[in-house]
Specification:
138 residues; mainly alpha; Rhomboid-like fold; 7 helices; globular
Length: 138
């Protein structure tokens, strides 16, 4: 069964979890509004490509560690990630506090990116999605 909610009560509103979901959905809707040729340029600019970091490693390329967490390869990719962020994120944000939750989320996503780069540093395949950050939350 796929979880749709949990039974753990929270003491506060998990506004960062909600904000992350809204941001991911907004970026995805923006992706959908782009013409096909522009989507490729959008992903080339904001997705994390390991070879770009291990090669020239420009300052822009390092920023893709963060921006790639908000891109998704399709509707099911987005929905799966947002479902698990919705179900589990509120409990972790409630337990850790807002700032530490956001820090943990970003560091988990960065750790996933570092693992991908370590495993395949010459890859030309763009890495997208919040899966690494959400896996850290789980």
């Amino acid at each position: 069964m796929i979880p749709l909610h949990d039974d753990n009560p929270t003491r506060s509103i998990a506004f960062l979890t909600i904000l992350l979901i809204v941001a991911n959905v907004a970026v995805f809707l923006y992706q959908l509004s782009l013409p096909r040729a522009a989507i490729e340029a959008f992903f080339a600019s904001f997705a994390l490509t390991p070879a770009h970091l291990t090669g020239s490693g420009t300052a822009h390329a390092y920023g893709t560690v963060l921006t790639s967490m908000f891109l998704h390869g399709g509707l099911m990719h987005l929905l799966g990630n947002m479902l698990y962020l919705w179900v589990f994120g509120n409990n972790i944000e409630d337990a850790c506090g807002h700032f530490r939750f956001l820090l943990f989320y970003v560091l988990s996503g960065g750790g996933a990116a570092a693992a991908q780069i370590a495993v395949n540093p010459d890859s030309q395949i763009p890495m997208v999605g919040a899966s690494g950050a959400i896996s850290g939350i789980l």
